[in-house]
Design a protein that fits this description.
7-stranded mixed β-sheet; Rossmann fold; 2 domains; single chain
């Protein structure tokens, strides 16, 4: 099948590789332009860009699409059977959505209509959902509102993290898009009930508030690491909390209860397992405390 692939982050790479491995004719790969990264701020291509070059596929990196008639015409001239979209990062305008013969198919990392929007993986963990999944959706101009072609559920598990769920959903999406292209299943409208939204995350979401319950903070740590992370303040420093688990205990929120260290929350307590100071490497709690003591009775600041 003659395809364009449109994606940027790691999540999209397994699908690109699966389509290429299945023998589809990928005539163009669209992704975000290279951006400065690292200490030297060197222009760095995104993961999909790097994978496409490795596979010998032509890459296009337009900075915008919405009002660019030349880009619309170039896309139409590809004479596509379909376009596959996975976390591309740009909104496709109507002329591009309509250009391929079978339209544009989106690999969305949730069981639609739950968690439309930019951060469905993190939102599912934050909400305590028992499962997430992947939906192959026929794209339209609304935000993740198009009819569904296929869905596959993926369990989250009681200690599920964003990196683990991300990888499971990326693999599931790669398998599911191959089925959607091969089987051409009928499109089913999304239910009008049960719609939820997962807004884009920012650095402002990283702050820990010890007044929350231990269960909620545990989900927060598992959902928001590695980015934007979870942070509390102590001794004038912003300390990243990389791993934690609920524990027995109670007290004023933010109070260190024991040497573990276990921290009192608005309800229950949280044992800190892995932490990181600014400019330092991540450490298990025992090693961290040797250089940054948190004696019982200390009250930690919110992030």
């Amino acid at each position: 099948m003659r395809l364009a692939f449109m994606g940027s982050p790691d999540f999209a790479v397994p699908a690109l590789r699966a389509l290429h491995g299945a023998g589809h004719d990928i005539v163009a790969v669209y992704c975000q332009p290279p951006r400065p990264a690292g200490r030297g701020q060197k222009e760095t291509p995104c993961p999909v860009h790097r994978a496409a070059l490795e596979l010998g596929l032509p890459v296009r990196t337009p900075a915008r699409l919405r009002r660019d008639a030349a880009e619309h015409a170039a896309f139409a001239a590809l004479d596509l059977d379909a376009a596959v979209v996975a976390a591309y990062g740009l909104i496709l305008p109507a002329p591009m959505l309509a250009a391929p013969r079978r339209g544009c198919l989106n690999i969305h990392a949730s069981l639609l209509p739950r968690w439309r929007g930019a951060a469905p993986i993190q939102a599912a963990i934050l909400a305590g959902d028992a499962e997430s999944g992947v939906t192959i959706m026929q794209m339209e101009e609304g935000l993740d509102t198009g009819p569904m072609l296929l869905r596959a559920a993926v369990p989250i598990g009681p200690r599920g993290t964003t990196p683990a769920l991300h990888d499971a959903l990326a693999a599931a999406g790669a398998a599911l898009i191959l089925r959607a292209l091969a089987e051409a299943p009928p499109a089913v409208p999304q239910p009008v009930e049960g719609v939820t939204y997962a807004p884009k995350l920012s650095k402002a979401d990283a702050g820990i508030d010890w007044r929350e319950s231990a269960a909620a903070l545990d989900r927060r740590v598992r959902a928001l690491n590695p980015w934007p992370g979870t942070v509390f303040r102590q001794g004038g420093e912003a300390i990243r909390l990389l791993a934690a688990e609920p524990a027995a205990g109670s007290g004023p929120p933010g109070t260190v209860l024991d040497a573990a260290p276990t921290i009192a929350c608005g309800e229950g307590a949280l044992r800190l397992l892995r932490l990181q100071r600014p400019g330092r490497g991540p450490l298990p709690a025992e090693a961290f405390l040797r250089g940054f003591p948190l004696p019982p009775g200390t009250v930690l600041g919110n992030g």
